[in-house]
TrEMBL record:
This is Gfo/Idh/MocA family oxidoreductase. Residues 134-257 form the GFO/IDH/MocA-like oxidoreductase domain. InterPro entries: Gfo/Idh/MocA-like_OxRdtase_N (IPR000683), Gfo/Idh/MocA_Oxidoreductase (IPR052515), GFO_IDH_MocA-like_dom (IPR055170), NAD(P)-bd_dom_sf (IPR036291). Residues 5-121 form the Gfo/Idh/MocA-like oxidoreductase N-terminal domain. It comes from Paenibacillus baimaensis. It comes from the Bacteria.
Length: 344
């Protein structure tokens, strides 16, 4: 295994900057190629990253390069499976942006292709690294809240009309795959399921209430978890100003509530345990401005992919894990479309 792991980026849009910067900062990573259908955009990303990678307008030509170990898939969501499968067939490991894909069969094909060609498939879910989330996950697994009763996620973002006009793919079913839940809210959907366990069924309302887009800008979902607990997800991109994303975890022996700004409640029956103290250096809040997303989370997943390759282990969030929030969101969309409860 070479000392330096060589990365390529396919798709030079806004999120690709976080991949490029993370690769630039990592002592064992090198950015060797970028592909985008706009050569100017690829060149701008290369200059911003302070490197001189090879540039392509056709990602299939990029995949012919022998000196690529990992491909970062930063295309519009609806193209994730196409690029990932091609990369796997070329023998490249894949670090994919969220969501893994927007179709169940696409995700299955991605996972199968990477397994068949013996390459790693990882996905970026940087909010799993929030210190408050890590403490909450540990406390729930230790039984501190007792039997889980309610698990709620409030995902209230603001995205302007200009945001949706900034890319022809935004707000479309074909390439965005959904709106407030599939694009912005997928992180929170992932977290609430990660914390509370798998979901048994959903009943949902979703619509474009404020933006002129194909997909939803607002959704409300009732959940039944397999544990028997209930929950709610509220997701939107149409409230002003964007609100702190917030999670409420209630059990018969305690309550944990946390958000972007930290832990709000940490209360357990019969215990006087102070809330954990920590310094949040991730800067993961982007409720109102997506450009404010920190690169710290992406750096973790770049490093994780490097270590997964070296140790021949699964990435922290592999394909099977990354598909869970998408499967849940697809069930939510089906429920809203049909007006019935949908079992997963």
């Amino acid at each position: 295994m070479p000392d330096t792991i060589r990365f390529a980026i396919v798709g030079a849009g806004s999120i690709a900057r976080h991949h490029a910067e993370s690769i630039r900062r990592h002592p064992d990573a090198q950015l060797v190629a970028i592909a985008d259908n706009s050569l100017d955009r690829a060149q701008a990303l290369a200059e911003e990253a302070g490197s001189t990678p090879q540039l392509f307008t056709d990602y299939e030509e990029l995949l012919k390069l022998a000196d690529i170990d990992v491909v970062c898939v930063c295309t519009p969501s609806g193209a994730h499976s196409e690029v990932t499968i091609a990369a796997a067939q070329a023998g490249k490991h894949v670090l994919c942006e969220k969501p893994l894909d927007i179709h169940a069969d696409g995700m299955t094909a991605m996972i199968n292709a990477c397994r068949e060609h013996d390459v790693k498939l990882g996905c970026v879910f940087q909010r799993r690294l929030m210190p408050a989330m890590l403490h909450a996950h540990k406390a729930i697994r230790e039984g501190k809240i007792g039997r889980p009763v309610l698990g709620n996620a409030y995902l209230k973002y603001y995205r302007s009309p200009e945001y949706y006009k900034s890319g022809g793919w935004r707000g479309t079913w074909k390439l965005d795959g959904g709106g407030a839940l599939m694009n912005q809210g997928v992180h929170g959907v992932d977290l609430i399921q990660y914390l509370m366990g798998d979901v048994e069924s959903v009943f949902a309302y979703s619509a474009a209430l404020s933006r002129e887009i194909e997909v939803e800008d607002t959704a409300v979902v009732a959940l039944k978890y397999k544990s028997g607990a209930f929950g709610i997800i509220q997701g939107t991109t149409s409230v002003y100003p964007g609100q702190e994303t917030r999670f409420e975890l209630h059990g018969d022996q305690g309550t944990i509530e946390f958000g972007d700004e930290g832990i709000r409640q940490w209360i357990f029956k019969g215990q006087e345990e102070p809330a954990p103290q920590y310094e949040d250096t991730l800067g993961l809040s982007s409720s109102s401005n997506p450009s404010q997303i920190s690169t710290a989370g992406h750096y973790f997943y770049v490093d994780d992919m490097i270590q997964a390759i070296r140790d021949n282990r699964e990435p922290r969030v592999n394909g099977e894990e990354a598909r869970k929030p998408v499967d849940l969101i697809l069930a939510i969309y089906e429920s809203a479309r049909l007006g019935i409860e949908i079992k997963l």
